[in-house]
């Protein structure tokens, strides 16, 4: 169906927000876009790049958004069975001072290792190869007990880039190109700038003058922040973060990456980190994506997976522009002025009669659950009352078996138990028995069922 353009009042509000940020924060240039329905619904630019207003094809350095690409490569290796997230880093790259830190802890910045690489400020100086970098890292770079807390580590992502290179037999960058960028058609995401691109500047704090910033090849630290990209390319990557993966990752793998592994600010968290993705809560929305910062550049990609709405912002200044808040505001503007339409309901194209027979009410003890058939043989199991919780979705893994994807039963196997004649006796889920009737006597309820049955007092 055709996609309707945004209302002029919405476009004006979006442009007003971008223009205000660029003017008030003195950004040499600033570009932003809103993604909806799988496309750029709006984009705007302010300032000048080579004398022109920047647009959707103007490259900016995206800094730590690079980490999301590295994380996607690690998760691809995990899905292929070549990496265990709970395995120590030393299993894949031996000989480092942090070899007992797990791959998952590195992905989530929970390994406790130093934030920056030893030596000079890596973002403004030429990089070194991994063997030299690894030799620089000693016990003093281990700042916290692994798993204790969130401690952002650029060095950790340099290490993950080396892990990818060792297991793929090519550089991390070549793996990004062949496994992610090329399949997704992201032709303007590169390790060094290609015209048209913005130059990086620092803006003087007390005068409206600029200082050019250097842009070196970070080499072993490049996986932490080397890439340059455009609004067009990052709009495609935002859709991957939202689950429209184009086949480069399983959608449930991306959903796993979006789950909070650590939080930054206590129990009522507003910011956290998953497996390679930054997380935020803003105005009742849970956002996923990443911010980026390199000398001369700031960038952000935020995706709201529930509505499929994303915002992207990039600027060529070292500090001062609040790009993350700009992006959350753009999402809020479009969501408030033009709420996303719900996905149009349509019946399943086909259905397995045996799966259809599973649907309906099942009981865990006396508590009713509804089993619903979803797409591609997926099912959901949800409470029918307001108490009890434990709603989960399940992906089929074989005949009569499903794997829990979220909620209490994430990672657990749901199994259909059949009688000798092939009819369904009950469901077995992590030792819990679900029967068609409350405490059904023929369903092998653990502990048995009182032979006197249900009684009145």
From TrEMBL:
Residues 351-436 form the DUF7586 domain. SUPFAM superfamilies: beta-lactamase/transpeptidase-like. Residues 17-322 form the Beta-lactamase-related domain. It holds the Pfam family DUF7586. Gene3D superfamilies: DD-peptidase/beta-lactamase superfamily (3.40.710.10). This is CubicO group peptidase (Beta-lactamase class C family).
């Amino acid at each position: 169906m055709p996609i309707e353009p945004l209302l002029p009042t919405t476009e004006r509000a979006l442009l007003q927000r971008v223009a205000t940020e660029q003017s008030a924060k003195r950004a040499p240039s600033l570009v932003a876009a809103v993604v909806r329905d799988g496309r750029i619904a709006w984009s705007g630019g302010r300032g000048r790049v080579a004398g022109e207003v920047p647009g959707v094809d103007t490259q900016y350095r995206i800094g730590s958004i690079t980490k999301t690409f590295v994380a996607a490569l690690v998760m691809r290796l995990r899905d292929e069975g070549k990496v265990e997230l709970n395995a120590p880093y030393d299993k894949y790259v031996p000989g480092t001072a942090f070899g007992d830190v797990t791959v998952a802890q590195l992905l989530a910045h929970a390994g406790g290792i130093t934030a920056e690489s030893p030596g000079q400020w890596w973002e403004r100086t030429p990089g070194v190869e991994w063997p030299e970098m690894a030799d620089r890292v000693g016990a003093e770079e281990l700042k916290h007990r692994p798993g204790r807390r969130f401690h952002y580590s650029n060095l950790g992502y340099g290490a993950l880039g080396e892990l990818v290179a060792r297991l793929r037999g090519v550089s991390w960058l070549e793996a990004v190109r062949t496994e992610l960028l090329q399949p997704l058609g992201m032709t303007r995401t590169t390790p060094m700038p290609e015209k048209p691109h913005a130059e990086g500047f620092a803006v003087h704090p007390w005068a409206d003058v600029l200082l050019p910033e250097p842009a070196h090849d970070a080499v072993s630290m490049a996986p932490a922040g080397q890439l340059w990209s455009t609004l067009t390319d990052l709009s495609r990557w935002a859709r991957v973060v939202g689950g429209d993966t184009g086949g480069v990752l399983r959608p449930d793998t991306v959903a796993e990456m979006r789950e909070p592994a650590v939080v930054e600010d206590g129990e009522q968290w507003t910011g956290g980190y998953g497996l390679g993705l930054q997380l935020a809560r803003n105005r009742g929305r849970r956002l996923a994506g990443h911010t980026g910062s390199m000398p001369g550049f700031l960038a952000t990609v935020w995706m709201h997976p529930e509505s499929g709405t994303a915002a992207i912002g990039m600027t060529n200044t070292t500090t001062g522009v609040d790009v993350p808040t700009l992006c959350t505001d753009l999402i809020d503007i479009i969501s408030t002025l033009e709420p996303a339409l719900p996905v149009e309901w349509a019946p399943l194209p086909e259905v397995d009669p045996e799966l259809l027979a599973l649907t309906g009410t099942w009981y865990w003890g006396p508590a009713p659950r509804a089993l619903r058939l979803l797409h591609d043989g997926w099912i959901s199991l949800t409470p029918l009352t307001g108490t009890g919780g434990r709603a989960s979705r399940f992906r089929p893994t074989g005949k009569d078996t499903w794997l829990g994807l979220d909620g209490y039963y994430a990672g657990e196997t749901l199994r259909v138990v059949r009688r000798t004649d092939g009819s369904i006796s009950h469901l077995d889920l992590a030792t819990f028995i679900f029967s068609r009737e409350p405490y059904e006597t023929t369903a092998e309820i653990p502990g048995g069922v009182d032979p006197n049955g249900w009684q009145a007092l």
